Amino acid sequence: MNGMKKKTIFIAAFLLILTGCSKSTDKVESMKSPQKTQAQEIQTINYYSYLDEIDMNNVQKSEFDFSLTYDKENPMELKNESSHIFLARVVSLEKADSPSNDEETPMDMVIPFTYGKLEVLQSFQGEVSGVVDFVRLGGIMKEKDLYKNEIPEVLEKRNLLRLESGRPPIEESEEYIDIRSQGDILLEAGGIYLFFARWDDEWKKYDLEGYEYGALYLEKDGKSVGKMRSLDKRIEASLTLRNLSNGLEYGLKDYLENELAIQVYD
Predict the structure, then answer these.
(1) Engineering a disulfide at 85: which of 97, 125, 147, 220 sits with its beta carbon 3.0 to 4.6 angstroms away?
(2) Among 12, 109, 24, 21, which residue's Cα sits nearest to residue 59?
(3) Are 165 and 129 in contact (CB under 8 A)?
(4) Can you give the residue ranges of every domain in the chain?
(5) Residue 62 to residues 16, 112, 182: CA-CA distances in angstroms?
(6) pTM for the complete prediction?
């Protein structure tokens, strides 16, 4: 089941609420200098999130219940759905955009995807290293940008509802909207996660799978390990994974060996 457009997603429910939160990250000074090798680039990267440029107190939130073709709460099903499993640092959250706005993407959906880069620190399934591009379903963007390539008939119906409530047409809306799977998280620039991913041959990017269950936050003694430059194959007992949505915590070694049947060194 390769390729983003082959992933089956059913939208089962829609909720609209107001939300607000904030995170603080650094900016990327230079990620694409032609004079630097990839290894040199990694050492000079500062972490960037486009979310820092948004007033998160005034973001409209829309949560969808996305039913997948696999059980995201089952680690082995998530593993089997993924071509790669790795620990990676989020180098950048560059933007959120709708595939319908980009002729080069393999999909034509009016829904946000978040685009960014990861620095892969250690692979457990599939071979990958260095800085790679990723996409992840869900993100925050302006309404007028999200819906600018909506089907005209659908856009007309949306605008009629807005007119009834005294709101301007979507084409004029400067409001930001946060669209994510129900219970999903926003990634943190600089944070390290255990990611489940599928390489997409059409987009030439890693598609991050499993929503909040496929992005488990790495901690050591209850604190973020985002400043670690590398990870030894001998997994420390103090390294843990946390599901930031429900707060569940797992020992990294135990999770890899007992839930995913991936042997690691003592």
Answers:
(1) 125
(2) 21
(3) no
(4) 4-259
(5) 5, 11, 9
(6) 0.81
